[in-house]
């Protein structure tokens, strides 16, 4: 945790360096949000079927940051603003050459309904049990 889910319209001008973008997002959000870099799960989806402002010319970039509930409103604002800053740099050409919106949202997940297993759990033949997470002291 957290999960970064980046979606963008197919008409952006940049050739996205996905690995570089996520490396920068991971580092920046780790610093402002107290996340561990190794805990990020990130992916990008290019959407070729989209419509914005009623036209196909409108470009967009949206980042959904999914993390456990419990961060303060101030902490969530800092995380969102830092992500927006990084995205603005990576999509500057699209922002200057087209009509484009970049947005960031934080979706809070409930710890009680989040489950996962790891490869090492399966390799050791351990039974797959819900992961018990400790409360974070990060704001």
Instruction: Please state the structural category.
Output: alpha/beta
CATH architecture: 2-Layer Sandwich
Cα separation of the termini:
15 Å
Sheet with the most strands? 4 strands, mixed
Low-confidence stretches: none
GO molecular function: 5-carboxymethyl-2-hydroxymuconate delta-isomerase activity
Protein name: 5-carboxymethyl-2-hydroxymuconate Delta-isomerase
Pfam families: CHMI
Organism: Streptomyces klenkii
Brief overview:
GO terms for molecular function: 5-carboxymethyl-2-hydroxymuconate delta-isomerase activity. With 139 residues, the chain is an alpha/beta fold.
Word description of this protein:
Pfam families: CHMI. InterPro entries: 5-COMe_2-OHmuconate_Isoase, Tautomerase/MIF_sf. This is 5-carboxymethyl-2-hydroxymuconate Delta-isomerase. GO terms for molecular function: 5-carboxymethyl-2-hydroxymuconate delta-isomerase activity. By secondary structure, the chain is an alpha/beta fold. The chain has one domain (3-114): Macrophage Migration Inhibitory Factor (2-Layer Sandwich). The protein is built from 4 helices and 4 strands. The chain has helices at residues 18-33, 73-90, 92-97, 119-123; strands spanning 3-9, 41-47, 59-68, 100-109. Strand 1, helix 1 (18-33) and strand 2 (41-47) form a beta-alpha-beta unit.
């Amino acid at each position: 945790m957290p999960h970064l889910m980046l979606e963008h319209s197919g008409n952006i001008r940049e050739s996205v360096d996905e690995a570089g973008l996520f490396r920068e997002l991971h580092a920046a959000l780790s610093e402002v949000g107290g996340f561990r870099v190794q805990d990020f799960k990130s992916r990008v989806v290019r959407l070729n079927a989209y419509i914005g402002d009623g036209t196909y010319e409108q470009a967009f970039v949206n980042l959904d940051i999914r993390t456990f509930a419990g961060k303060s409103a101030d902490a969530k604002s800092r995380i969102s603003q830092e992500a927006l800053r990084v995205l603005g740099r990576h999509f500057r050409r699209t922002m200057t050459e087209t009509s484009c919106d970049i947005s960031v949202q934080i979706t809070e997940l409930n710890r009680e309904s989040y489950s996962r297993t790891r490869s090492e759990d399966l390799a050791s033949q351990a039974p797959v049990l819900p992961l018990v997470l400790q409360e974070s002291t990060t704001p």
